[in-house]
Design brief:
- There is one protein chain.
- This protein is mostly helical and about 210 residues long.
- The chain folds into 2 domains: about 50 residues, Arc Repressor Mutant, subunit A; about 150 residues.
- The protein has a two-stranded antiparallel ribbon with strand order 1-2.
- The longest helix has 27 residues.
C-alpha cells in the first residue's frame, strides 16, 4: 500500500471508529456529521470523500462488524475440525452467540439497526482477508455434505431469524431465560429446521412418481 492509500485508509478508519463510538454513546439520530468529524479530528468536508451521509456509515459499520463476527466463527470452526452439517451450523451459531454475549455493546448496536437486507449484504458480499467470504463459505458448507436441501437460502434465513429473534433479550436482559437455557431449546429447533429442509430418498421417490 502506497503512502497516499495508507493515509486515505487511516482517515476512513478514523471516521468509522469515531462514528461507532458516537452511535453507541449518543445514538444515530443525535449524532451529526460535524460530531463525527470533530471526534475524528478531521475537517468536515473530508467526510464526503468517503461517505454520502451518516446512514451510509451506519450500514458500513454493520457490514464490517457482522463480517468480523462471522470471520471469527469461521476460523474457530476450521480449527476445531467439526464434522457433520448440523454440528457445523450449531457450532457457528454457538460461537456467534458467545461473541455477542461477550460484547453486549456491539449487540445493542447491531440489533437496533439490523435489517435482513443489510445482514444479507454483510454476510454475502463483504470480502474477508483470511478466509472465504460468507457466501462462498455457506455454499461450501452445503457442498461438503452428501445431503441435499431445498431452498438453501430460505433455510439460512430462517436460522438467522430464529437466532436473532430469540437471543436479543436473553443476552441483554436474561429474559425470559438465561443464554445456556436458551441454547438447550434453540439447538434442537435448528436441527429440526435443517431436517425439514432436507430432501430425503422418500421425497425424491415421490417426485419421480409424479
Amino acid at each position: 500500500m502506497g503512502k497516499l492509500e495508507d493515509n486515505k485508509k487511516k482517515k476512513k478508519d478514523a471516521i468509522v471508529d469515531s462514528a461507532f463510538s458516537l452511535f453507541i454513546e449518543k445514538g444515530l439520530n443525535d449524532t451529526s456529521i460535524a460530531d463525527i468529524m470533530e471526534k475524528a479530528k478531521l475537517a468536515k468536508g473530508t467526510f464526503y470523500l468517503y461517505f454520502k451521509d451518516k446512514y451510509e456509515v451506519r450500514d458500513y459499520l454493520i457490514r464490517k462488524k457482522a463480517s468480523q463476527i462471522f470471520e471469527k466463527a469461521q476460523l474457530a470452526l476450521h480449527e476445531e475440525k467439526i464434522q457433520g452439517f448440523e454440528e457445523k451450523v450449531i457450532f457457528l451459531v454457538d460461537n456467534v452467540l458467545n461473541q455477542l454475549n461477550d460484547n453486549k455493546v456491539l449487540l445493542r448496536f447491531i440489533a437496533k439497526n439490523l435489517s435482513w437486507g443489510i445482514f444479507r449484504h454483510a454476510i454475502m458480499s463483504m470480502p474477508m482477508d483470511r478466509v472465504l467470504n460468507a457466501e462462498e463459505f455457506i455454499e461450501k458448507l452445503f457442498q461438503e455434505t452428501d445431503r441435499k436441501f431445498k431452498n438453501q437460502e430460505m433455510l439460512i434465513f430462517m436460522i438467522v431469524e430464529l437466532v436473532n429473534s430469540t437471543a436479543h433479550n436473553v443476552i441483554l436482559y436474561e429474559q425470559p431465560v438465561t443464554l445456556p437455557e436458551l441454547k438447550e431449546v434453540l439447538y434442537p429447533l435448528i436441527r429440526q429446521l435443517i431436517s425439514n429442509f432436507e430432501i430425503t430418498w422418500a421425497d425424491s421417490g415421490e417426485a419421480d412418481e409424479r
